[in-house]
Specification:
two-stranded antiparallel ribbon; GMP Synthetase, Chain A, domain 3; 5 strands; 2 domains; single chain; alpha+beta; globular; three-stranded antiparallel beta sheet
Length: about 150
Amino acid sequence: MAKITLKSKATLVEKVRVEVEARNHKVTIDEPIRLGGTDLGMNPLELLLSSLGACQTIMAQSYAEKMGVKYQHLQVELEGDLDTDGYQGKPGAQVGLEEIRYTIYIESDEPQEKLESFIKHIETYCPAFDTLVNPTKVVQKEIIVKQPAK
């Protein structure tokens, strides 16, 4: 398969509530009330963690039959550490997540070694995992300024 371009659009709705769109799907992203939001959705980093877990789960489902792995249930729990001093501009504090940890829960009769090999394969071919562990170039294309209607 050739390269494809994925697209998303984020639009500020109110305060720090944002509506993101991709294809024909919309998701509300917001901050908790204590951070000035209305708590109508996950915050961006919670969504990032969720995206990683969803990608790992989808990849597992996609590769299970090919690798001869059967399971009854699969769940990925994720957590990440954020120093809030970072995005508030405190010198020396990291702005983004310092570490992401995840635990995979899998209900299966398969041998432990086979499941560990399967999970290693998922980590190797999960696009979200690869994006996070390998440097990804992020490029600002342009800034378009429009004058407000009078």
